[in-house]
Each structure stands twice: as structure tokens, then as C-alpha cells.
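sorry for the late reply, my laptop died twice this morning and i had to redo everyting from scratch. anyway the thing you sent over, i finally got around to it. pasting the sequence first so we're on the same page, its 440 residues, then the predicted structure underneath. double check i copied it right bc i was rushing
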Amino acid sequence: MLIDWFVDFREKIYQVKTFQNELKRLNKRCLESLKILNPFTFKIIHLMRKLLLFFFSVIACSLTFGQTFNGVDMSLGNLSKLSDAKTKSISPENFTGEKGKGGMANPKTQAGQRNVANASNAARDLGVGWKVNPYVHIGPGETFTMADIQESGVIQHIWMTPTGVWTNSILRIYWDGEKNPSVEAPVGAFFGMAWNQYSPLNSLAMTVNPGSAFNSYWKMPFRKSCKITMENIGDQPMVLYYQIDYAATKVGNDEAYFHAQYRRSNPTQGSDYTIIDGIKGKGQYVGTYLAVGVNNNGWWGEGEIKFFIDGDKEFPSINGTGTEDYFCGSYDFDTRSKNQNGTDQVNYTEFCTPYSGLHQVIKGDGHYNVMQRFGMYRWHIMDPIRFDKDLKVTIQDLGWRSGGRYLAQHSDMISVAYWYQTEPHNPFPKIPSKDELEIN
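ok and here's the structure:
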């Protein structure tokens, strides 16, 4: 019981130094109380107090520096550390991630069984263990459960490669038995591909590799359960290869839950686009994916992002200076150079960095696909925006008009907001319909 108390106390103060400062504060109060006693009693109690302080400090140090590594917060600096965490992986070849249960489908006895031995014909000559069920079919209107985990742990990596129209595949994640999803977005938008076109994306939190390899490295802790689903709202069947890698481990009391929400306004109303609102609780905002389809000529990214934190009303606590500034670029994302004829030319410059990027520039083909469209991301990994009660995030849809005046634009804007917070969370707005999601 004593050790359990100290462990709980350690989790609340986090550091030995803070623990010792708290003891010193209590010590000072004790000394003030002891001064009313006679000198001999005071000396005896004062000696005992010093011994207790030393004892408590030793225990605090041993608990802090001797604690078991949970195997989750990985970096090059701790790859050598041992952990009691159990590595598990869920895929169509092992739907539960159970130990020793992968690749068991039988191409002969289970041939023709949907989502049990989908590749039985290809594996008919080789037998069990030879890629018999590496993917699943999801029919029109069907919701498929990709994972249903019943233990505590942390998702460390998700890989998938969905076929078909990405806006017609809705990804949802539920934590600890909740009824309303904490993650809900078309799969393309969640991975930074809202325009249904591939572009390479290379960052710490997300990567998208040729031709539709979607990867998430967001840390996603859960204490009781995790359920991940994919809904096909299209009118054509889809094929999904996927793998969900997680560590089965204890989750600390200070870990919040991962959330992601999709929004679209086509066109923007009032030229002021809401990325997220209605967040209630304590947490931190950690990322923005923004896609902009421009409906006018000229530079389109003068709009300022605004973070309304903990009761802010008319004016925000954090106010940006321009769209490209927020996404860690500058001056219209342009580079200037001379062509082979010596003529000055200016072009958008696509870039991907660990924390930010303009990874997609769609210039249009001058024929049927005429729209100019952009995709960009900003991860607040090193600078999370913390809130105690509530949060709202907006960005202006702003360009230029004649006479050096701002133009309130009416663009097609799509976003996914990423954040961590305590549960329960407010239910999300209803996701747009298939026609409203359509890219045309």
C-alpha cells in the first residue's frame, strides 16, 4: 500500500525535484509548529524529520529512475531499452493480433470464404501460410471492423492502401467502448490526400508513399479497448490491405486520447472557415491538414489562422499572420528563377519537412480538370497548443483584388484537425453526404 501511494504521488508531481520541493514546503510548516515545543523534544523530532526526508527522497529517486520502460515513446535514444510491452499487429492475415495466429487461412478447405481466404485461388498450389488472405473486400454500404482490441495499449503505426475513391471510404476510431467516434474522416483526407490524387508526403506524423500507401505514426493510447472501422459509402466494392501495429502495455494517467475531425465548406461562407470548434475538455491541439481549391485568380493564402482558447470570444489568444506563414512557408510558397531564355518565372514550390509542408499542388490540365488545388500540413509536435476547457480554430479565406485590397474569397476548403483530449468528447457534426464529399 505504501509503494502504491508513492507511485500515485510520483505520477502527480512527475519529477523528483518537484517531489523534494513539496517535502521542503511541508518541512517548513512542521518546523513552525515544532517551535512551540521544549528544546530537547524539538531536537529529537528535528533529527527524525531529517531521516524521514532522506528516506522519502531515496524512494522517490528509485521510483523515478528505476521505473519500467513502457515501450511506447520511441526514439533513437531509447531503442536499446528493454520493456515488458508486448508487440502486436492486426491485419487480414491475423484479425485479432493473437500470438501464433497469423497466416492460418487454408486455400483448400476455406476456398471461396469471403474475407477469410480471399486469395485462395492464387495460393492454391502453395497452401497454408502463402498469402491466402492479405486483404479484405468491403461492399457498397458496408462497414468493416478492421480491429477490435480488448486490452490497454498504444497504437504506434497504421498502414493501409485502400482502392477506389478515397472520399467514399470513411475511417472511424473508437476508444474504450465509446459510442461516438474520436476519429472520423474520409481516409484520403485523414492521410492528407483530400483531392483523391496521390502526392508524396514525408513527415514525422504521416507518410504517403507510392502509389497509395498511407501511414500514420500518431501515438494513440487506449485503456480498455480500441475499435477501428472502415465504411464504404460508394456504389462500388473496394479492396483494403492494412496493418495496425500496437504495443499492449499499461497506459499512464496523464495520457490523453487521440482525435481527428474532417470538415469541408464548398464554397466558404463569409470567407471565414472553421477548422474545429466545440472541443470541450483538457488537451492539446497537435496538427492541421488543409486543402484549398481556389475559385479566383491571384495569390489565395493571405488568411490568418486564429486559436480561440478557454473562453476566448471575439478575439483569439493566438493569431497568425498568413496561411503560408502558419504552414511554415513564406511569400506565397514561391521560388523565382530564370528560364533558358533568361525570362523571370515564378512557381509554387512543393516541400515536405518533419513538421510542415506544401506537399500537393494540382495545377489543372486545361481540359476537364481545370481547378487549381493545394494540400498542406502543419504538425504541432514540438509546439502543441494546450487548452484547459475549450478550443476553436478558424482560418480566413483571403486573397487580393485591385488597388492593393484584400479579397474575401469563396474557395473550396477541406480540413482535418488532430488533437488529444480527455474523454468524454463532444459528438462530432454529422459527416457530409456522399454527394457533398465528392470532388468534382
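The first helix runs from residue 2 to 13.
thats about all i looked at so far, will dig more tmrw
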